[in-house]
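Course assignment 3, question 2. Fill in each field.
Student: A.L.
Task: Predict the tertiary structure for the chain below.
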Amino acid sequence: MKTFFAAAFSFCFVLISAHLYAQEDMSKLKEKIEAMNDTYSKAEIAGDDETILSFYAEDAISLPSYSPIIKGKEAIKESMLQSKGAYKITEFKMTTLDVFGSGDLVYEIGNYNMAMTMPGMEKPVTDTGKYLTVYQKQADGSLKIKAETWNTDLNPWASMGKMQEEKEKK
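Answer field:
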């Protein structure tokens, strides 16, 4: 009977240790992702496309709001170039809410806040939303974006209705 309890205790110890190690590992990954997000945010504000692109895997997939799927780093670069001049990001902050993973994939769920100026508009446009990013661990230990998606918390049709109401009042 003693042997059974010793084996059961050892098994439980291994499970608890593995769980704590996984939590510590996720904690380190979260810190790494938060540092990456900080650099990414600064690059967005600076319009530094090369730094932004350095975060993506060659076969990355982007699923932007109100747009078709973008497949591959080169297509993501082309999309970035096409949007140049349409707006200027003046504030950008990502907040990591959760990080979890399996194998060589790490998943991040978070919120974003941003402000941007657009030609012909006096005030900046602000947006808040959420995102999901899937990272793939690289052989050198770095993380690259494998897939991403984001969308606004704001209803664009509601703001269109408000703009229409304001026009009708004039």
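Instructor remarks: The chain has one domain: 2-155. Residues 2-46 form the longest helix (45 residues).
Grade: pending
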